[in-house]
Write a structure and sequence with these properties.
Largest sheet: 4 strands, parallel
Oligomer: single chain
Radius of gyration: 20 Å
Structural class: alpha/beta
Strand content: 15-25%
Strand order of the largest sheet: 3-4-5-10
Distance between the termini: 30 Å
Number of strands: 10
Shape: globular
Number of helices: 11
Order of helices and strands: HEHEHEHEHEHEHHEEEHEHH
């Protein structure tokens, strides 16, 4: 929401922080938010422009004046979207469940259809398997394209992929890569080791943050698909997969004062010329939410292009470039070229 308004005031030559200013004829501010769902009492019932700044949201405010858009945040469906352990933390950093009646599938579908929504974004918390599938069902019934930003395997599940294809609806997924985050840096470095003849022997990626995403992930039972997604994103670029004990990729801990700042500690160990050992250590610090938005703003527009062209089902090229766990994994440089071809209509 901040980004749409921020780039509305920019010219292409001044538009820092975008992979594409013009994507198939669509600019960032051509995106219009027409519906929204949440479960927090501090957001439900508010205009989206106000809800984005309500707790527990804690990201950097880079566009403080977001005008009212006339879209009221509707009460969503909870299901497994809120972990029980969140109740043990202060109000400013956890969900405060709304007392409003939960939406039914019919409610969500009706809202999407009446609003004219074309693309539905899923940003449910990690581990929300049932809730993510609920909104995927709603997208199918409402006739919306679907961008699955979370590690619930929908686009990469052949049965779900077939359902979107049969409905003629585009889907991009699963589990968003940040614009320049831990996963894309880890993949790039692993690929560099391989191309430079360095044998990669073991690696870890430890992440800390202070937003609700990290607080939610303290419940390790919700992390199975997340760890699979992040680990596979790195393993997929290796010519020789590492044994499980030699690779650790995943969330590490919640540090409240970091707020939306995500810090990654990355280590890669290997052997180079003469079998001589070496290692690389890296610390990456980014604002988590804008880092995700820098990719999603392109995913939305790719879905719109597919709708314009009458293309349904998995968008394989954008999924491979934008997501950690796409149905088909490609090296990032190849995924980039394939995505550019998709945008140009010449895939």
């Amino acid at each position: 929401m901040q980004g749409i308004e921020y780039y509305r005031k920019k010219e292409s030559k001044d538009a820092i922080g975008l992979m594409h200013w013009d994507l198939g004829g669509y600019r960032p501010h051509d995106i219009e938010v027409v519906a929204a769902f949440d479960i927090d009492r501090r957001k439900v019932g508010k205009d989206v422009s106000e809800a984005i700044f309500s707790l527990p949201n804690c990201t950097t405010v880079f566009c403080p004046e977001v005008p009212k858009c006339g879209v009221e945040v509707k009460m969503g469906r909870i299901l497994d979207g809120c972990s029980e352990h969140l109740a043990d933390y202060p109000e400013e950093c956890r969900f405060m469940l709304s007392e409003a009646v939960e939406a039914t599938k019919e409610d969500v579908v009706r809202t999407l259809q009446e609003s004219g929504a074309e693309v539905l974004l899923n940003y449910m918390p990690v581990g929300s398997e049932l809730a993510a599938r609920f909104y995927a069902e709603c997208a199918l019934e409402a006739g919306c394209a679907f961008v699955n930003n979370m590690p619930v395997f929908i686009a990469s599940n052949p049965e779900w992929a077939k359902r979107f294809e049969e409905k003629g609806l585009p889907i991009i997924g699963d589990d968003i890569k940040s614009q320049l985050g831990a996963t894309i840096v880890h993949r790039t470095l692993a690929d560099l080791f391989m191309k430079r003849g360095v044998k990669l022997e073991r690696t870890y990626q430890l992440n800390t943050g202070g937003n609700t995403d990290f607080l939610n992930m303290l419940n390790r039972s919700r992390l199975k698909s997340k760890k699979t997604s992040k680990t596979e994103a790195v393993q997929s670029v290796l010519t020789e997969r590492l044994e499980k004990e030699n690779i650790h990729v995943g969330p590490s801990d919640y540090v409240a004062w970091q707020k939306d700042n995500k810090v990654c500690f990355l280590r890669i160990e290997g052997r180079l010329f003469g079998d001589v050992p070496m290692n690389l250590e890296l610390r990456l610090s980014v604002e988590d939410s804008p880092n995700s938005a820098g990719v999603v703003i392109d995913a939305v527009r790719c879905c719109k292009l597919a709708l314009d062209r009458g293309v349904g089902g998995v968008l394989y090229s954008p999924s491979s470039y934008f997501m950690k766990h796409p149905p088909r994994q490609y090296p990032d440089d190849e995924a980039y070229l394939l995505t550019e071809l998709f945008i140009a209509g010449d895939e």
